[in-house]
Amino acid sequence: MDVPNLEFSLYFMGYEKPEDVPTDPKARAEFAFSRKATLELTHNFGTENDDKMKYHNGNSEPRGFGHIGIAVPDVYAASERFEKLGVPFIKKPDGGKMKGLAFIQDPDGYWIEILNYKRMASV
């Protein structure tokens, strides 16, 4: 959706009807982490030509937005694919204290958490 008078565009991906949400707490949690998410992406017109424009990923000072998370059915399979594609990792699934989740980095340095939706439903 372009909003030329405000000089930005919005992109939305995914949407579910509220009546499709389960009422059982465990089923609701699994649904929340396994369904298509609604993600809004904003493009500010002109930033691609602005030499002063720079990104801040929020994981260093000054802190702010940290990361987005994407739920997948198999973190290890997803991580193998990312590795084959040359995607940089912040944390691999068996690294650190928290096992079974990964953090990758997009081309702008933003962190993306890769997590298992079934595991999140049991937390």
UniProtKB/TrEMBL annotation:
UniProt: Zn(2+) binding residues: 40, 67, 113
EC number(s) recorded for this UniProt protein: 4.4.1.5
Top-level taxonomic group: Eukaryota
Cofactor note: Binds 1 zinc ion per subunit. In the homodimer, two zinc ions are bound between subunits.
Positions annotated as active site in the UniProt record: 113 (proton donor/acceptor)
GO molecular function: lactoylglutathione lyase activity; metal ion binding
VOC domain location: 1-117
Pathway: Secondary metabolite metabolism; methylglyoxal degradation; (R)-lactate from methylglyoxal: step 1/2
Pfam family, one: Glyoxalase
CDD domains: GlxI_Zn
Keyword tags: Lyase, Metal-binding, Zinc
Family per record: Belongs to the glyoxalase I family.
Protein's name in the database: lactoylglutathione lyase
The organism's taxonomic lineage, starting at the top: Eukaryota, Metazoa, Spiralia, Lophotrochozoa, Mollusca
